[in-house]
Specification:
This protein has about 450 residues and is of the alpha/beta class. Helix content is about 40%, strand content about 15%. The chain has a domain of about 250 residues: Amidase signature (AS) enzymes (Alpha-Beta Complex), CATH 3.90.1300.10. It is an enzyme of class 6 (ligase).
């Protein structure tokens, strides 16, 4: 049953919201002690929401587009009276005092928020191993990391613990775990979704987006959370056209798909083989393929991380232990400490020109050059992550960890929409197909995903 079909079944009283919640909660009880996808569950609140939805449906009242669906929320997005810790000891006792804009919109559309999902501490990671709650396991690849930083959300979807989950994506943190867990993840155009209520990692790069097992789940959530927000000046005026119509696409006739040679060059051959099969599927659906070259790929990671360090350091100055939380430098883990130390160093006046300002110049160069690539195609298709996820607890170097992001950071640097969907398996481990498009061409990405899904 697709997600949209489940909503329709609930509205037609073929399935109750309460029954859907009970099924998901039973799965959480059965699996979560092992997988560690959820770090906090609020069953009483979820039950009240489900009962209210069922009552309104029975009395013929109108219900929202998410009516009866169970939603997981990454624990760096404010939900009132929930522990919004960002998986860090810094905020281990911080209760959300308000709802983020995306949470208000989910509640307005009758989504049932079941709880908060695990993540890398302050979203600084690509494996969900740096969480104070312990690592999340990958339900789709035994013994492997689920990716990060939104690994809990991806794992919750893969393990059927919720219908849709929210994550945040600063350099690939939705797409990376979607690839490793074999589910769908979508990073919208920067400015399409309000960041109000999201704990910053890097404000000019962060974007909230959904995970689901099918495109109708992505579409329902995108239709819910996109649109202007007066509390976030980076959001665009108005609201995008509905996404749901894109989920019935069955053809790619007239579509030009770009394949970037350098993206394939840095990727494991076995992963490329699975991605190439998906590209062949796109051709069979009517798409034309155009080979592209992007010489700036080597600039992506250093540009991204220099901006990330400075913006993260700036965003965390409020965690000084006086108003709320602990002093971050005294309790944080090693990866957060590394980013704070480097961010502090390169934020100093005498070094900002040498590092941060040059990173901003490189960002402009990458933006201009990538826009030129996109001018000639509708979609760029390629691998999401260049290598397979490592085993949980396996020691890898900092640079090896950062290299997971080499294919995903470009979308954050440029603000364009990007997604990941399952391309197949290598040695029994899921690998992802990444799709990228021009700013505000999110619909083209979803339509392409739908054509592949409906093939």
């Amino acid at each position: 049953m697709k997600i949209i079909e489940k909503v329709e079944a609930i509205k037609q009283q073929e399935l109750s919201a309460t029954e859907n919640l009970e099924t998901m909660y039973e799965t959480i009880q059965e699996k979560n002690d092992d997988i560690n996808a959820f770090v906090e569950i609020d069953l009483p609140r979820a039950q009240r929401t489900a009962e209210n939805i069922d009552r309104r449906i029975k009395t013929g009242e109108k219900t929202g587009k998410l009516a009866g669906l169970v939603i997981g929320i990454k624990c760096n997005i404010n939900v009132m009276d929930s522990t919004i810790s960002a998986a860090s000891p810094t905020l281990k006792e911080y209760l959300g005092s308000y709802n983020a804009t995306v949470i208000e919109r989910i509640m307005k559309e009758d989504g049932i928020i079941i709880g908060l999902t695990n993540m890398d501490e302050f979203a600084a990671g690509s494996s969900t191993e740096t969480s104070m709650y312990g690592p999340t396991k990958n339900p789709s690849a035994e013994g492997r990391i689920p990716g990060g930083s939104s690994g809990g959300s991806a794992a919750a979807i893969a393990a059927d613990m919720c219908d849709i989950a929210l994550g945040s994506d600063t350099g690939g943190s939705i797409r990376n775990p979607a690839s490793h867990c074999g589910v769908m993840g979508f990073k919208p155009t920067y400015g399409y979704v309000s960041r109000q209520g999201l704990l910053d990692l890097a404000m000019s790069l962060d974007q909230i987006g959904p995970f689901a097992k099918d495109t109708t789940g992505l579409a329902l959530m995108l239709d819910t959370i996109t649109g202007y927000d007066q509390y976030d000046p980076t959001t665009f005026e108005g609201k995008p056209d509905d996404f749901m119509p894109e989920t019935s696409n069955t053809s790619l006739n007239g579509m030009t798909v770009g394949i970037v040679d350098e993206f394939m060059d840095v990727t494991d051959d076995k992963i490329n083989a699975q991605v190439n099969k998906k590209i062949d599927d796109m051709i069979s659906l009517g798409a034309q393929v155009k080979e592209l070259s992007f010489d700036d790929i080597s600039l992506g990671l250093p540009t991204y991380y220099l901006i990330n360090y400075v913006e993260f350091f700036s965003a965390t100055r409020k965690y000084d232990g006086r108003e709320y939380g602990e002093r971050i430098e005294e309790v944080c883990g090693p990866e957060v400490a590394r980013r704070l130390e480097i961010g502090s160093y390169i934020s100093q006046k005498e070094f900002s020109g040498k590092y941060y300002k040059k990173a901003l110049q490189a960002r402009s160069l990458i933006l201009n050059d990538f826009q030129k690539l996109l001018n000639d195609v509708d979609i760029i298709a390629g691998p999401t992550v260049p290598k397979l996820p490592h085993k949980i607890g396996e020691e890898i170097s900092t640079m090896d960890m950062y290299s997971y992001d080499v294919l995903t950071v470009i979308a954050n640097i440029t603000g364009i929409p990007a997604s990941s969907m399952n391309a197949g398996k290598v040695d029994g481990i899921p690998v992802g197909l990444q799709l990228q498009a021009k700013p505000k061409d999110d619909h083209k990405i979803l339509s392409t995903m739908s054509a592949l899904e409906n093939q």
